[in-house]
């Protein structure tokens, strides 16, 4: 965190306000269970089905909170962001519901299903090279040209608060949870969940799960200093981004640990959720369950929430 930045101020009150603001704009997604997967893992598992969320991912929560909270003078100029897909689709839908334009900067290698979703919600897609530098430079050009308000995919307190509403619903549905496992890419979901969960149930363990091939959050958490994301190699395309500054500060304070998982475990988790739960889960959404499969000793015998973050998978490019 640089000297001119203030510590993040995301609180339980901000998350509760976000939950009230986005009511009606997003789904309260179900909590799913499977006796077979409980037996397979030796844990009592509760899957928070954000793959059934509007736009097919949890991102609808943060984007809706940010867009619905904009003053009219700012909203009228439209919104913009960079995204590999899920946040872009969520922002496009939120903007369409408010009747304002949206520009989404997308890397050229973004999954076709996610590009189609962004376009389907009426946003303008602006292509860029598949690097963080290219995404940020192209977004700056869009803002300069249109004066749009930037809603960052994860390093934004409004977005973090919106994502944290997942934990409010989880702990209302299953109040006696011992642990919550959530994926971590940019960190908005994990940070928001951790803030809310620790405020409501201080004894709960919050675990971030990350692909071993994109392990900047794992390294940052272990070293106590934000590390860059370098050449991520994982099928979990939604988790290839680098950890945000605000997100890391909250994760340091409220998350208990971060573990990594192999690509094989991600595919196994995805296959089990498809075949046993009949849940169409994308690779990023399968990562937390992969954590249970690969780090079973952390979860065995406990009541565990698994945040299934999304279901926007390209059916023509399945990992099996």
From TrEMBL:
User: Domain Tryptophan synthase beta chain-like PALP spans what residues?
Assistant: 24-310
Q: Which Gene3D superfamilies match?
A: 3.40.50.1100
Q: InterPro entries, per this entry? A: Ser/Thr_deHydtase_PyrdxlP-BS, TrpB-like_PALP, TrpB-like_PALP_sf
This protein's UniProt keywords? Lyase, Magnesium, Pyridoxal phosphate
Q: Which Pfam families match?
A: PALP
Q: Name one GO biological process term.
A: D-serine biosynthetic process
Q: Which cofactor does it need?
A: Mg(2+); pyridoxal 5'-phosphate; Ca(2+); Mn(2+)
Q: What Enzyme Commission number does this protein have?
A: 4.3.1.19
* Any one Gene Ontology molecular-function term assigned to this protein's record: threonine deaminase activity
Family that this chain belongs to: Belongs to the serine/threonine dehydratase family.
Q: What is this protein called?
A: Threonine dehydratase, catabolic
Q: What is this organism's lineage?
A: Bacteria, Pseudomonadati, Pseudomonadota, Gammaproteobacteria, Cellvibrionales
């Amino acid at each position: 965190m640089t000297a001119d930045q203030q510590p993040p101020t995301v609180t339980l009150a901000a998350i509760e306000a976000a939950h009230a603001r986005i009511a009606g704009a997003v789904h309260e997604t179900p909590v799913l269970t499977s006796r077979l997967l409980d037996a397979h893992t030796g844990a009592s598992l509760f899957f928070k089905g954000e793959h059934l969320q509007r736009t097919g991912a949890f991102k609808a929560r943060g984007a809706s909170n940010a867009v619905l909270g904009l003053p009219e003078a700012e909203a009228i100029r439209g919104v913009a962001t960079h995204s590999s897909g899920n946040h872009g689709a969520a922002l496009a839908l939120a903007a369409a519901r408010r009747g304002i334009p949206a520009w989404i900067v997308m890397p050229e290698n973004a999954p076709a299903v996610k590009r189609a979703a962004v376009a389907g919600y009426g946003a303008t897609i602006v292509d860029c090279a598949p690097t963080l530098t290219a995404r940020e430079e192209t977004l700056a050009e869009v803002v300069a040209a249109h004066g749009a308000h930037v809603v960052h995919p994860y390093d934004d307190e409004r977005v973090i608060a919106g994502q944290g509403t997942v934990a409010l619903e989880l702990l209302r549905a299953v109040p006696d949870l011992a642990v919550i496992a959530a994926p971590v890419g940019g960190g908005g979901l994990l940070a928001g969940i951790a803030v809310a969960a620790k405020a409501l149930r201080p004894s709960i363990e919050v675990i971030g799960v990350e692909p071993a091939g994109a392990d900047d959050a794992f390294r940052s958490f272990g070293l106590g200093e934000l590390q860059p994301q370098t050449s991520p190699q994982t099928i979990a395309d939604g988790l290839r981004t680098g950890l945000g500054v605000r997100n890391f500060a909250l994760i340091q304070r409220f998350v208990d640990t971060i573990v990594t998982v192999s690509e094989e475990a991600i595919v196994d988790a995805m296959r089990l959720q498809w075949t046993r739960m009949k849940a169409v889960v994308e690779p990023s959404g399968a990562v937390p369950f992969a954590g249970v499969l690969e780090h079973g000793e952390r979860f065995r015998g406990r009541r565990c929430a698994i945040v299934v973050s999304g279901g926007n998978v390209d059916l023509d490019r399945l990992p099996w």
